[in-house]
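Subject: mismatched residue count in predicted assembly?

I count 294 residues in my input, but I want to confirm that the predicted structure covers every chain. Input:
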Amino acid sequence: MSKQLDTQEIWDMIIVGVGPAGLAAALNGRIREKRTLILAADRTPPRLQKAPLIKNYPGFNGITGEDLYQRFYQHAHDMGVEFRAERVENIYPGANFTVVTRSNKIYIGRTVILAIGIQQNRQLEGERELVGRGLGYCATCDGPLYRNKDVAVLGETPEAEEEVNFLAAIGRNVYYFPLYEGDIKVDQKVDVRREQPQAILGEERVRAIALPDREIPVDGVFIIRTVAPAERLIAELLQADGAIVVDHTMITNVPGLFAAGDCTGKPYQIGKAVGEGLTAAQSAIHYLDSKKEA
Ligand SMILES: Cc1cc2nc3c(=O)[nH]c(=O)nc-3n(C[C@H](O)[C@H](O)[C@H](O)COP(=O)(O)OP(=O)(O)OC[C@H]3O[C@@H](n4cnc5c(N)ncnc54)[C@H](O)[C@@H]3O)c2cc1C
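Triage response: the counts match. Full output below for your records.
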């Protein structure tokens, strides 16, 4: 599939994630008049929206997560932050960052701030070993390898339904395991299973999905998660104990790349996410200024 360059422009800051960390980073970028873009997976709301009642965010005692989110979002919007509903798939460092989305668009940024929240579910048995050997995370990217083959998709989010439909058009048997509630809108050809896969089986390559009482033979498996593990987005990124390693200025080990919010570790709280978003933006501005002087 050919990739499209969305615009010819280069953004000063590309922020991945529209939760409190991403929004705080973005509006601080705009205060310093940086060209700031937020890319966020639109059908996966930030965790903030799920908080029923917030009692520990100063000045907003008893507000709901949804109300606070709307206030944060409106503030960033009013400051001129630009938004695109895009799930980021890969980030490549270089003179500038090349950010590739699941819809195969490319955005170029001088700096990138990761504000992607945390991955709540653990990896499945066999997942780590079989990545790249029949197991992938983006059907629209790797799906063509499974033309006329049997393939299974495990989806944590309704966004996975588009990927399933893409596979339905080219695969032989397509099994879909939705791991969320609600209606499923997929091609009639797809075999939808409301079961919880236990493991991905295979030695050299994927050979089957293990269910509690049987196995389903498949040639390939795609897992579509709400939050991609950060190391999948950017291979060079240093992590420890499931969190992105940053210093107190939110600098990662990759020059020009910063991280903020839940993805940098505990405590998983709004106040921390907002403070880190601000700090990451200021560090990104400092980095941009230092490159201008060089
Ligand atoms: C039920 C509940 C109650 C809570 N109550 C409180 C409370 O009372 N007080 C408190 O302080 N905290 C509370 N929290 C925690 C708080 O919501 C989080 O700490 C906060 O939302 C973290 O902000 P964040 O910006 O780091 O991540 P998130 O809010 O999780 O946002 C992450 C964003 O990244 C996006 N994203 C992820 N991967 C990609 C990708 N590959 N491409 C594009 N976008 C991507 C997601 O779509 C999302 O927009 C609660 C959380 C929950 C779930």
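The chain has two domains: 4-120+227-293, 127-224. Marking this ticket as 'not a bug'.
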